[in-house]
Specification:
- Strands 7-6-3-8 form a four-stranded antiparallel β-sheet. A four-stranded antiparallel β-sheet has the order 11-10-9-13.
- The protein starts with a strand and ends with a helix.
- The protein has helices at residues 9-16, 46-59, 70-73, 96-109, 115-124, 182-204, 212-221, 231-248, 252-263, 270-281, 344-347, 369-379, 406-412, 441-452; strands spanning 2-5, 21-24, 63-69, 81-84, 128-131, 150-156, 161-166, 210-211, 293-299, 302-307, 315-318, 323-326, 339-340, 383-392, 398-404, 417-423, 431-438.
- Helix 1 links the parallel strand 1 and strand 2.
- It has two domains: 44-57 and 284-452, Alpha-Beta Complex (v583 fold), CATH 3.90.1700.10; 61-276, Alpha-Beta Complex (Enterococcus faecalis V583 fold), CATH 3.90.1710.10.
- It is α+β, with helices and mostly antiparallel strands.
- It contains 14 helices and 17 strands.
Length: 453
């Protein structure tokens, strides 16, 4: 005989003590009063609106068409402006690693010569801070985009919108984790002067660009979830662009350095999967009555979401603490709270939604492959649909959960599962680990109430 326990641990322990086999189910009733919403006060059919939202997300194309300099290609970007990850925030509320990235960006741009000068400039009000998401862009971790930084340009050719993201620096002591040492700035300058023009020339020589959505689908077959595991995606991208690099780069040493840089950075593809997700989700914004999440983002202080039916409106709660593994010499006491725009991947139907296809992810917290499968199975409970392109072999090629519905989150009490890197809480240090967590449910409850009203 087996007994199924739905969250009552004391009951389960008592039954086990009698020699009975107990199967634990992680069940918690929702703490919210959440009547089923089927129509808005204006009479709009929410199910129909949500069906259209997920149709748009799933049917989009995400094609890499080239690169550009942020000030030249990102709408609304201007001098003395820095874009950051997450919902809006003022400098006085920014966490340590975001401040560190701001310092580094000011030095990279030549606005300040020292970290002290950069801090004074940032606090003076002379710099405009705005979310990446307000400019059709995304930024990993601290998310800082400054005017001179090169960015990827990814077009959703089915809907005519474009998204942007910086190039990935690699792991460890890098700007996006709040580091600003001279070697950090030197790498950014090399990326601006060597990596960017080499890649741009290669991409623009390719008829039709590079289909990033297709690469994501392939990578999901190969053990990535394209958020915190990008080994396959990076390899696939290098294969796709390799011939064009060889044809367009006339200097052998430059070609070798560019290939080596990409090859040595397993997360290089992250900065392509993120803007691809942004390009795919944006067309769903503005569908009246839809309760589908189109943005999830965090800045190390706040976690914010936006939904299709209320475009431009943020619902914000405190950022969460990551349950993870730390590099030698660091502990949870050193860690900053959750940060970055990379949760756009979960919003688009991969990342944490597809953990079942990337069982190695659970090594972040000492888990086993079944934990990854269980995580994805749970996410179906809060999503409106399943993706018809992003498929999971471990689940008999079932489509990944797609279309986080704030109604379902509040009704079930289940919030989205995320995976992420961990930055040191102090500026200038960088990455200290990686791990897993859940999005704060309070954001979804706020969005639910806004739709309910």
């Amino acid at each position: 005989m087996k007994v199924i326990n739905i969250g009552l641990q004391q009951f389960a322990d008592s039954v086990r003590a009698q020699g009975v086999d107990v199967v634990d189910v992680d069940f918690r009733p929702s703490p919210y009063d959440a009547p089923r919403l089927t129509r808005t006060r204006a009479g709009i059919d929410i199910e129909a609106a949500n069906a259209e939202a997920v149709r748009r997300i799933a049917s989009g194309k995400a094609t890499l068409v080239g690169l550009g300099v942020a000030r030249d290609v990102i709408p609304g970007m201007r001098d003395k402006m820095l874009l950051h990850a997450g919902p809006p925030i003022t400098y006085d509320r920014m966490c340590g690693p975001v401040r560190g990235a701001v310092i580094g960006a000011c030095m990279y741009e030549g606005w300040a010569k020292t970290s002290n000068e950069a801090m004074q400039l940032a606090a003076s009000g002379a710099i405009t801070f705005e979310p990446c998401h307000h400019h059709h862009a995304v930024g990993p971790m601290a998310g800082i985009i400054s005017p001179s930084m090169p960015v990827w340009m990814i077009d959703n050719t089915n809907f005519g919108n474009r998204a942007f993201c910086t190039l990935n620096e690699g792991l460890g002591k890098v700007l996006r984790f709040g580091a600003f040492a001279p070697e950090v700035i030197a790498k950014l300058k090399w990326m601006e002067t060597v990596l960017y023009p080499t890649l741009d020339k290669a991409v623009r020589s390719m008829d039709g660009g590079i289909d990033i959505k297709n690469l994501i689908a392939q990578a999901l077959y190969m053990g990535d979830e394209c958020h915190n595991r990008n080994k396959a995606g990076t390899s696939l991208f290098l294969r796709a662009i390799g011939p064009a690099l060889a044809r367009t780069c006339g200097d052998g040493e430059t070609l070798a350095r560019v290939i080596a840089f990409i090859d040595s950075n397993d997360h290089f593809f992250l900065n392509l999967s993120m803007p691809a997700a942004k390009a795919l989700t944006e067309p769903a914004e503005g569908i009246e009555g839809s309760t589908i999440v189109t943005t999830m983002a965090r800045n190390g202080t706040d976690f914010g979401i936006r939904i299709a039916g209320l475009p431009g409106q943020w619902f914000v709660a405190p950022a969460g603490r990551v349950n993870g593994l730390y590099f030698p010499g660091f502990t949870e006491a050193d860690a900053n709270l959750d940060m970055g725009d990379s949760t756009i991947t979960e919003t688009a139907g991969f990342g944490g939604m597809a953990m079942a296809g990337a069982p190695a992810i659970v090594k972040f917290v000492g888990g086993v492959p079944q934990d990854a499968i269980d995580a994805t199975l749970e996410m179906y409970e809060i999503c409106a649909s399943e993706h018809d392109t992003f498929l999971i072999p471990a689940l008999n090629f079932r489509g990944a959960p797609l279309g986080i519905d704030v109604r379902r989150v509040v009704e079930t009490g289940i919030s989205p599962r995320l995976n992420t890197g961990i930055a040191h809480k102090d500026p200038g240090i960088g990455q200290i680990g990686a791990g897993l967590l859940r999005a704060p449910i309070e954001c979804f409850a706020q969005a639910f109430e806004a739709m309910r009203d």
